[in-house]
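HUMAN: Quick job: go over this next protein and say how the chain folds.
***
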Amino acid sequence: MDVQDYMKNDLFAARNDIELLKTGKGTASAKLTVKPHHLNAYRTLHGGALFTLADFAFAAACNSHGTVAVGINASMSYIKAVTEGEVIAEAEEVALGSKLSNYIVKVYQNKEIVAIFEGMAYRKKHVPLGSAG
């Protein structure tokens, strides 16, 4: 199973209107078009929605090698508020080991960075994508 098909199983991302744009070895990008239900009480894009977008791109990038990888640590810095339009998350692998890998995800709106996500994944090297458990 390839990562594009595997990521279709992420029902939480789908429920939150997140679309996988492209993947490559150690890279991925995803998009969220801001809708009213993505806004917080202050009428800006909810931090959880922004985190979910970045986390989805991270998941696609770290699973792009054909075996299951799961996030074990993540942090996010919010740089600029978003109120409407599209946001794009671009994930890039910065270190790939036999058990651990690290990623930076930059989230953009109109080519301007609005958030930066850092994530670490544990690689289950003997578990191919699509396998249970």
